[in-house]
Batch of 2 targets.
Target 1
Amino acid sequence: TTATVVGNYRVTGADTDSDIHHIVLDFGELPFPVLEGQSIGILPPGLDAQGRPHHARQYSLASPRDGERAGYNNLSLTVKRVTEDHAGAAAHGVCSNYLCDLVKNDKVQVIGPFGHTFLMPNHPRANLIMICTGTGSAPMRAMTERCRRRIDSGDNGKLMLFFGARTERELPYFGPLMKLPPDFIDINLALSREAGQPKRYVQDLIRDRAVKVRELLADRNTCIYVCGLKGMESGVLDALRDVTVQSGQDWSILHDALRREGRLHFETY
């Protein structure tokens, strides 16, 4: 379908190299139902080096099922402008640059939605441990906003967030995140390049918060979501193992149970 851009906002400091945008797409009269944890495909215009139309790139939803603005037929994405590859060499991200340069009223070709393995639990009082870096915050924002909108319903469980970035200025949504009440969500920020502070990564904070993490892991209503760069998977699993072993439990048994019961979710790239 075709969506219309109704907002495009930079959500990292203008003085940083991390150019991350919050982009809002509106679908007008066409129903486009989505769920937290899903993604959509964006078809950038133009042709690739072989003269073929560009294939779709997928982006996780950053808004809950009832829209970026509650009751509106829209959704949002969190997109980082790609200017280099993982090795640091110059590289132009075709779709990310296209999206980051969009302006209000531009039209965007969209397919989807996709995904059934990263969905937010639907049962009341489910606990969420959310672990992310950078634009991996998109599905966590969707889930958190879903919970915030039903905060008076009594349906929410405990929310715990581990969020990693190089500095506060490079952490998407830092301002709005800091306005959430601490009795609603337990926020833990891991900053690896903050001046005057030791390097901290999400796995370090998981170990630091071992008591609370173990308490949540002991509850079968707890689901774990990990989203970000592929390299964070092993570090997160090692930290969860260490937290479990500290209490005298067998991590392999708990790990198998989490996977078997569909409570451990990874979406890395």
Note: The chain has a mean pLDDT of 96.
Target 2
Amino acid sequence: MTQTAEKSFEEMKPGVKAPAKETLLTPRFYTTDFDKMAKMNLSPNEEELRAILEEFRADYNRHHFVRDEEFDQAWEEKVDPETKRLFVEFLERSCTAEFSGFLLYKELGRRLREKNPILAECFTLMSRDEARHAGFLNKSMSDFNLALDLGFLTKQRKYTFFQPKFIFYATYLSEKIGYWRYITIYRHLEKHPENRFYPLFRLFGGWCQDENRHGDFFDALMRSQPQVLRGPQARLWCRFFLVAVFGTMYLNDQQRAGFYEALGLDAKEYNKYVIRRTNDTAGRVFPEILNVDHPAFYGSLDVCVENNAKLAEIEKSNAPKFSKFLRKLPLYASNGWQFLRLYFMQPINADARLGTVR
């Protein structure tokens, strides 16, 4: 391993990776108002929610997550150090995000069991899926002689409180963007198997269907709570979460473009495709979506990418902390301004496009 790669992984103890430092771009752990969620009336869309519950019970992927003989190789030696570094970062971010979903869904299933059994079972079965995903990702990390201590992560991470409607917006988009990310990589590698440097990618075709079903659940759940999707306030919040989720993914991926290059993908084009498809998908439930084809949309995001690269360089410097802070301020302000531009960019009325009224 190169010196650069060695320094990339701080270990809590041999073979156990220290969790990545929490930033605005790292996956977060969430909690919510469980009592408010338990009291929700599902009757406006209960039939669809029951149908989705039956799909969860069927557990179509129960035999999907199997490590076959292709995994039993010395992957530490087969993957070059820089690709390994980027891949382990991808695995850690993905594992942390899946584990975050597991913790939230498991607690919702436990807290809602008596007062809202339909929701409780849905969340419990989704936590089953997320646990499988997190476990499989963590096991994949161990093929490179590293793993996360998920028990430590549970206690060490700060939990962000979100009202139920914010949980709905955020997790719906997270699940749907996860679907488009996984299926896009899977389809690309079907056409270019020479770029599949690790067998995990073979499983993304079935894996992404879990993400899709979870997203469909939150779609149906939001439709059962009309106030979440109706009115000017709902429109503003939907737009906010679209900007936040798309911006976070874009900035994370552009910082790690080498990972996508290793797969034979152009990171920017991959991001644009995933954002466009997720945005279109969100238009089936959100009252408005972003104009991601506006010429200024990616221009603003690219300014933030450049700013973040400069922020990283400042952080690495040996300058005093206060000096670093002063040098970072204009870059933070610039990022804030670019996100404001994205937020106030004229959105697309999804209701008008679909011919619905809310």
Note: The mean pLDDT is 91.
